[in-house]
Every structure is written in C-alpha cells, then in structure tokens.
Amino acid sequence: AIVFPLQKLERYLAPGTDTARFRLFQPGLAALQRAEALFRSDRRHPIDYVSSAVRMDHAPPPALPEVCFIGRSNVGKSSLIRALFSLAPEVEVRVSKTPGHTKKMNFFKVGKYFTLVDMPGYGYRAPQDFVEMVEAYLQERRNLKRTFLLVDGVVGLQKTDHIAVEMLEEFGIPYVMVLTKIDRASRGLLLKNVLEIQEFVKESAQGCFPQLFLVSSVEFSGVHLLRCFVAHVTGNLPALEAS
C-alpha cells in the first residue's frame, strides 16, 4: 500500500470496475531499488540545487533529461519534492506555510542523470509573470521529458487545473497527473476524485499518461513509485525493469 496506493483502493470499488489504468506502471523490485539509488546522494553522485530562474535565459543549459513539477499554489508541490529528495537530506527544498512561496523556477541536478524543476504555483498568489515564465519554459525546453501536474487530493480538479491541462495539451507536452495529500482525504472522497480524474483523462486528454499517481508527503505513500517513474521517463531504468 505504501508503494502502490491505488491498489489499496481497489477492494472498495464496485465489482466489474475497470482497474486496468491502475496498473499501467508496475515496476519490479529491481527497478524500485535502482530508482532509490538514483535519489540517494553520495560523493560520486551528488544531488544539488543548481539555480533559480525567472526567464529562460537564466535557466541552466539543457544538458540532461529534465522533469518539471507544476500545480496550484498550496497543492503541496515543494513538500512532495522534499519527500522525493528525502534520501539526500542536504538538498534544501524550501517549504512554506504561505501559499505561493515559490516565485521562480528552481532547478535540482540529480548527479549526471537528470534535472528536476520546481515550478511556481498557479492560481492564488502566483507570480505576476507566471504565464510568460511557464509558457516559455514548456515551449522552449528541448530536454523536458515529462511534466508532473499536481492536483490536491482533497478538492480534486479545479478550474485553474483545467486551464493548466489546456495549456499542456495545446503545446503537446507529455504529462502525468499526481494526486497529493491523500492522507488528508477520506477513503470515499479519495475514490471519488480518483475516478473523476481518470474519467476526465480518458475522455478529454491526449497527452496525459493514463495512470494517476497518488502520493502523501507525510506518510510517503506513493513516493517510491513516483521516484521510479521519474527514473523511467528520464531514461534511467533498463526497459525490462520498468515493465
């Protein structure tokens, strides 16, 4: 249940409910261990904050495969990134109680393997130049392999999330949805939001990976699986391990 939170919910679904989209990415133990090693820093494999940027000409060179995390202000984006980097505690990911704390694109380099980008939140207290900053990044960043769109597990898809989806679809950017704060939602509410989002993706999305990822930055549910998926989309897992 810690690794595959979606499977924990299956027993509560009505008989006959299609759960094929719950199991599209089901890595084995070897792949999970490989991903954990990538997120664990040491002297030969440093994980570092690189720089922040408000314009693309301030961004570091696009030398490595890259993933970015985007979502509404207060969706728990920085908390999730800190959880992903918990095996490298020296990496400073600032988490604020005030929504909209992230005002710049923050770049983190994971050894020689990939870069992870913490994007400013949209909606409440978004930076004034948010649209220009994010649109330029999404359209110009040639090494971007996947965008992770975070959705609050308690409130589900909001109007601002739909706008973000429209932007990603318009630009033809491959993305995946991540449901955050699952520890705060009741089982019934969580199931409702999961099924509604999966139906939305099935009916209305072209560039979204069909499987929804569930995470809790507090209980670490789903964090191991998400690390593995990041390793997979950045080309750092042997194909057989990720199947």
Automatic annotation (TrEMBL):
Any one annotated GO CC term: mitochondrion
Assigned keywords, A-Z: GTP-binding, Magnesium, Metal-binding, Nucleotide-binding
Cofactors named for this entry: Mg(2+)
Entry keyword Magnesium: yes
InterPro entries associated with the record: EngB_GTPase, G_ENGB_dom, GTP-bd, GTP-bd_ribosome_bio_YsxC, P-loop_NTPase
CDD domains assigned to the protein according to its UniProt record, in alphabetical order: YihA_EngB (cd01876)
PROSITE patterns: G_ENGB
UniProt keyword Nucleotide-binding, yes or no: yes
GO molecular function, one term: metal ion binding
Domain EngB-type G, residue spans: 63-236
Domain of life: Eukaryota
Assigned protein family: Belongs to the TRAFAC class TrmE-Era-EngA-EngB-Septin-like GTPase superfamily. EngB GTPase family.
Protein name according to UniProt: GTP-binding protein 8
Source lineage: Eukaryota, Metazoa, Chordata, Craniata, Vertebrata
